[in-house]
Amino acid sequence: MVADLDEAKGRSADYPDAPPIEAVTTIQNQSHGHPHIEINPDVLETALQFAGPTRLAGIFGVSSHTIQHRALENELVEPGHPVYIKFTDEGGVTCRYYTSSTGSQSVLSDDELDSAMLQILTYYPCLGCCMIDGQLRYMGVSVPRSHIQASYSRVHGPPAAAFGVHHITR
After folding, report:
1. How far apart are CA 99 and CA 3, in angstroms?
2. What is the CA angle 161-167-169, rounded to 5?
3. At the top level of its lineage, which domain of life is listed (predicted)?
4. Average pLDDT for consecutive 10-residue bins of the chain (170 residues)?
5. Of residues 63, 132, 141, the one with CA closest to residue 109
6. How far apart are CA 143 and CA 71, in angstroms?
7. Quick count: other Cβ atoms within 10 Å of Cβ 93?
């Protein structure tokens, strides 16, 4: 019976009408270096609707950077903001102004942070530092981890074990 099932899985009454789609094409350069990898833009556009570059890298057999570059080349995604902007000051010195894609830290007093911490710990008394940080971000508050730890200590008392330090003994 097993042999019959193995044989049956290889047979199909519905054979494909067309050859398989060539999604990835490798083009050898005339000079030295890595070959250029082309990805079918239609296939890439459809694939990006279902998965990100990291997951697609394994499917297409290329790196996630290649997926990102081909998506940018084919204008399937928008480029991110520049990491820095070059400008020349009054003295003729070329400088770089670095930007950040992360939001700014919230300006909360210790009392306001403690109030938010008390509210969180009232509903979720067993949350750790990362989960508290996530809940604060959900509430629109972004504070450094050290401020969260200090507020936790003020509201709840010092933790039994340090955040993030969990030793498992077997």
Report:
1. 63
2. 130
3. Eukaryota
4. 78 71 80 83 92 90 92 90 84 82 77 92 88 90 88 79 67
5. 141
6. 34
7. 8
